[in-house]
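Before relying on records like the one below, remember that each one covers exactly one chain. Contacts with other chains, cofactors or solvent are not represented anywhere in the record.
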Amino acid sequence: MKDREGSFQKLVLERRSIRSFSDTPVDREKIAACLEAARLAPSADNAQPWRFLVIDDPAVKSRFSKEVFSGIYFVTRFAAKAPVLILMMARLDFVAHKLAKQIQDIRFQFLDIGIAGEHIVLQAQELGLGTCWIGWFHTRKARKFFRIPERYKIMSLLALGYAAKKPENPKKRKSLEEIVSFNRLDF
């Protein structure tokens, strides 16, 4: 698999979380391509609960970052240097999601946002952009900053931009033998 240039495996292998971004702006066309990939993601009952708020105006991003990366959230302030932040949200008013939560105790909108977000991440990688999922930020301040209605659950932020430098260390992942069983549980 490693010798297949341009393959999906190569894309996945090279994708890394970027925590140091250059100040090179990201063209809106590239942002739109990433969001188009998310739009095409599968979702439970085809509800498509995702909503994305793109923050690429430097002044707005600066004010927003000062709010959401303050206090105990300071450890993720590196994301403020990314040229683009994408606030990922889920609509909460879909009947299928409510039933799934009651019957199976599964919040499908969380899965749906995860899939859509990963589509963004992989499309960004293909376009030469770096990303980092940010879960540690002040969601109440984000909600207040943009006056986001309660019908939307703020799920995460994606920092998006060009890496200041290419990560050198290989990914540390468990082996398949540690995480996979066939036909019986033996791990």
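Residues 108-126 form the longest helix (19 residues).
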